[in-house]
DNA sequence: GAATAAAACGAACGGTCGTGCTATTCTTCT
DNA sequence: AGAAGAATAGCACGACCGTTCGTTTTATTC
């Protein structure tokens, strides 16, 4: 069974349009999602490379082969883990900003949500960090479908940032602004999780506010 | 035999002060460095976690057990790989900025060198990226000596950036500046290596120049 | 050059990994 | 309720992993 992620509506659905997780979902579809959610938690703690069949099956109370049957291969599982994590990201970070009707303010809301996501990932119970971001660096030089998936997600996210920047700061150079914002999030994760810097958020927000106030201008 | 890395002089030496690599170095010391250099190349391509004994030994034309004998464990090897990579970083990125006698200009030189390092790591032959940066995200939630080493290096580097920022931009908030610069380097690596964005450097430098022109100020 | 120490090897171990098979249990649909 | 099909379990395999051990080769020291 092939499942695809939708860009809008933040839900998974099968090829024929039925919702996963809903009561009309098939047994296999439901456990499939259960597996992926647990796998995202594992990936949050040890990276996508740490998503391994045996231990994952044990965490779920099922057999390794039973789990394996849901995915053609481990690589396919890892790709789906990334997709599922991106889904979560959309739900938690991107979707809520639509409630802000003052569109120029959406950039700040997006960034704030992003930091929340990095500090308190809904999965991993405080012991994990964003698996997608980790995959950016884990697979950046490892060719294969996992790398491709990570690259696609990073490109989509980067486009979104540019778009939000264009609306919020019409006179700014959107590429330079996006580079700075993207970097602030990456650096924030590093300072917060690796260095355990309690002031990480304050420093990140100060830099972000300064960027909004004096952004790089076009043709400067 | 215990080897320690020096912060100054960018060379390895043994506990009794003899230089490694010099003609008076012992056989074991020389091959030890050879192993680490090759291991850094491997780590550049696949991350520190990809440093594995068998394939590494084969690349070096030696036996797995002979290689293993140089390190008490695989973890110790990985830690030393990180140390060696940090050594290289010091040689290529940090040491040369001392030649700039106009100290405020050192920040820009440092950043430029950093981007050079990320784009053309002396090891990995174009197929690898900075292993230390990758380790930041690979091990940020994996307790152990490898994580500790990565954390220590990130803290040292972050301190250096703050110090350079303080000299270059005395009126600026050094923490916010450091966060932005650190982030720009991380984001640059992502755009250059994962997204293969040919314009990455131009965008990064534009953002950096804008930061120097309008940095976040203290107590703003 | 002989004695001693260091370094490298080869083979083997226990363990874990991903992946095929076949059989069994459970859903789902008529 | 029963047939058809999906989902899961059990088991085995080959490959690779880190590590150990005893032996052999190579450096170093006297």
Description:
2 copies of one chain form a homodimer. Chain A has helices spanning 27-46, 53-60, 64-68, 74-94, 106-119, 131-138, 145-168, 174-194, 200-213, and strands at residues 3-5, 12-14. Chain A has 220 residues and is an all-alpha fold. Chain A has one domain: Tetracycline Repressor, domain 2 (Orthogonal Bundle), CATH 1.10.357. A two-stranded antiparallel sheet of chain A has the order 1-2. In chain A, a hairpin with a 6-residue loop joins strand 1 and strand 2. The first copy, chain A, is elongated. Chains A and B meet through helix 1, helix 6, helix 7, helix 8 and helix 9 of A and helix 1, helix 6, helix 7, helix 8 and helix 9 of B. Chain A binds a DNA duplex (30 and 30 nucleotides) through helix 1 and helix 3.
Please give the structural blueprint.
Two copies of one chain form a homodimer.
Chain A: E1 3-5, E2 12-14, H1 27-46, H2 53-60, H3 64-68, H4 74-94, H5 106-119, H6 131-138, H7 145-168, H8 174-194, H9 200-213
Antiparallel strand pairs in A: 1-2
Chain A binds a DNA duplex (30 and 30 nucleotides) through helix 1 and helix 3.
Shape of chain A: elongated
Q: What oligomeric state do these chains adopt?
A: homodimer
**What is the count of helical runs of chain A?**
9
User: Looking at CATH, which topology of chain A would you report?
Assistant: Tetracycline Repressor, domain 2
Helix content of chain A: 55-70%
Mean pLDDT of chain A: 89
Q: Let me know the largest β-sheet of chain A.
A: 2 strands, antiparallel
Poorly predicted spans of chain A: 1-11, 14-18
CATH class category label of chain A: Mainly Alpha
Q: Give me the count of strands of chain A.
A: 2
Q: CATH superfamily of chain A, called what? A: Tetracycline Repressor, domain 2
Please state how the strands of the largest beta sheet of chain A are arranged side by side: 1-2
SSE pattern of chain A: EEHHHHHHHHH
Ends apart, CA distance between termini of chain A:
52 Å
Q: Please give the CATH architecture of chain A.
A: Orthogonal Bundle
Amount of beta strand of chain A: under 5%
């Amino acid at each position: 069974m092939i499942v695809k992620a939708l860009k809008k509506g933040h839900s998974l659905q099968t090829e024929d349009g039925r919702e996963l997780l809903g009561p009309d979902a098939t047994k296999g579809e439901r456990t499939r999602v259960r597996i992926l959610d647990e796998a995202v938690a594992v990936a949050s703690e040890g990276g996508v490379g740490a998503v391994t069949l045996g231990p994952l099956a044990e965490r779920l109370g099922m057999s390794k082969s039973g789990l394996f049957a849901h995915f053609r291969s481990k690589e396919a599982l890892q790709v789906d883990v990334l997709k599922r994590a991106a889904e979560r990201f959309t739900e938690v970070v991107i979707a809520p900003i639509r409630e802000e009707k003052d569109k120029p303010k959406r950039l700040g809301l997006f960034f704030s949500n992003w930091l929340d996501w990095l500090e308190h990932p809904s999965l991993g119970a405080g012991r994990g960090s964003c698996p997608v971001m980790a995959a950016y660096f884990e697979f950046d030089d490892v060719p294969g479908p996992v790398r491709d998936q990570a690259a696609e997600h990073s490109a989509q996210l980067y486009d979104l940032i540019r778009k939000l920047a264009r609306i919020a700061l019409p006179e700014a150079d959107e590429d330079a602004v996006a580079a700075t914002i993207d970097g602030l999030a990456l650096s924030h994760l590093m300072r917060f999780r690796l260095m355990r810097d309690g002031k990480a958020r304050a420093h990140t927000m100060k830099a972000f506010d300064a960027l909004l106030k004096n952004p790089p201008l076009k043709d400067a």
